[in-house]
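Final report, closing paragraph on structural work. Over the funding period we assembled a curated collection of sequence-structure pairs, and we close with a single example.
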Amino acid sequence: MSDVILDAAEAATPVHALLESELEAALATAPAHVRGHAAVSQFKAKAGQVLLIPGEDGALARVLFGLGASADAASFRGLPSKLNGGVYRIEQAPEGLDRTQAALAFALGSYKFDRYKTPAAERPQLLAEGVDVAEVRQVAHACALARDMINTPANDLGPLQIETIAREIAEQHRAQITVITGDALLEANYPAVHAVGRAAAPHRAPRMIEISWGEAGRPLVAIVGKGVVFDTGGLDIKPSAGMRLMKKDMGGAAHALALGRMIMAAGLPVRLAVLVPTVENAISGDAMRPGDIIASRKGLSIEVGNTDAEGRLILADALTRAAELEPALTLDLATLTGAARIALGPQLPPFFTDDEELAEAIARHARAAADPVWRLPLWKPYADALDSDVAEIKNDPDAWAQAGAVTAALFLQRFAPAGPWAHFDVFAWNSRSQPGRPVGGEAQAIRGLYAMIRERFA
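Its predicted structure, as stored:
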């Protein structure tokens, strides 16, 4: 994405951000034509309201932007869609407004996916004064990368393209990268990744991508992302309605690469391992079958009760690899279950961890970053729903347990490293259009996680 956050500009239109409680006093001292415009437009400074005020020459002179009842910087996400091209700056805002978060919200709200369309008109830009512009840009660019990846259809974003993006990120930040592809996965002991992806066409062969970065001796952060570039459901094929959005089933991989990019760009004092198992869950004569028993890197045999529960299979191998690296912190992100959406809807991703300190830090930074998540329990009495009669574990829990997001997390916990670990079941999609949040790919949880990691390893 081009930079919409500027650190210098010759001129900029002033934006006055107002609370509802401040409007009366602000208008009392404003010129008559401003009061008149506010009255005619019924501008009440409600959250997201915008009033464009012309000058004597008819050109835009200032912008009034409503914040509603609180000085919430996240409100600025909706501002770009209500402005024409040009440069703006926040001239006036309530005390306590976090201008860095406001600038980041403005950048996130400026996102458009126009790869397949004629680009729209020039986007507005924000002159961000007193803000670490480089930091805001890096976070915004990483989120835009994740959204671009999620929005791109599977015919243009297969396993090879995800590998290419990972290689570009590694090269940019002088990281090491290894990629194991196709039947070499069996030799390298990634049997579950191979089993899920082997049915794809040869040019879309499965692969295990691993980026390594950072100085020896520093604590290791492992980030694992589910990279299913398209999910047919396999032989347990999805209905057409369920398959329509499955280009986004690599959302976990997009999130992992974006979060890793944030950490490397900031030069945080950690070592980093970004692990991205990447497959297409396709259908062919060699497809994984219901009832198959497959091996895993950990050595646990897995009964495949449902080929449409494939994401947890590839994550099992990747989490086992993470455990071998002995991380100080492990995070995995995946578009894993419909049950998570039934529980919390599309806008509130659940996370799971048994580490109370980690849970508190995740929740606290998520709130501060306006990047909401909600903790769900790793409820141990449901664990035996994963017991298999013929293998050591199965990928589809018994129906009596019902809590599909919880049992998926319990499955992953069997493979996760010891120590602090959290699993995020993201939706990675805006289902309806709102100001600053167009229908399409969305980056969830990673801004809060970035802030948490920054504090944890300061």
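The chain has a mean pLDDT of 96. The chain has 14 helices and 20 strands. We thank the funder for supporting this effort.
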